[in-house]
Amino acid sequence: MITRLNLLLMLAVLVSGIYMVRSAYEARRLFTELDRSQSEARRLDADYQRLLADRQAQATNLRVEQVARERLKMRAITPAITFNPDAPAQVASGARGTGAAR
User: Fold this and answer.
1) What is the pTM of this model?
2) CB neighbours of 90 closer than 8 A, spacing ≥ 6?
3) Number of folded domains in the chain?
4) Taking every pair of C-alpha atoms in the chain, what is the biggest distance, in angstroms?
5) Which of 13, 43, 68, 88 is most buried, by CB atoms within 10 Å?
6) Which residues constitute the domain of residue 54?
7) pLDDT tens across 48-66, in order?
8) Range of weakest confidence among 26-30, 40-44, 59-63
9) In a domain, 94, yes or no
10) DSSP codes, 46-74
11) For residue 97, is it within any domain?
């Protein structure tokens, strides 16, 4: 009877030892994964800050005007190139001077 109790207790100690080793290994693995994730988060945050700075640099008025002129072939608006599609007759009659007599 005592031999069985000793064998049972030794088996319990062995199982608890294996469980503790496994728990320690799992804790180290999780800590390494956490550290890797935190490094990745810092890298992504740095990329995000860089992208915000790039976006702010690209959105300046001078940059928008430069892109509009070079890529989109746009030009500054003047009365000579303004066109009102709703009233082309008024523009034509106003250009002849008939509107000034009213």
Assistant:
1) 0.50
2) 84, 99
3) 1
4) 127
5) 68
6) 2-78
7) 999 999 998 888 888 888 8
8) 59-63
9) no
10) HHHHHHHHHHHHHTSHHHHHHHHHHTS--
11) no
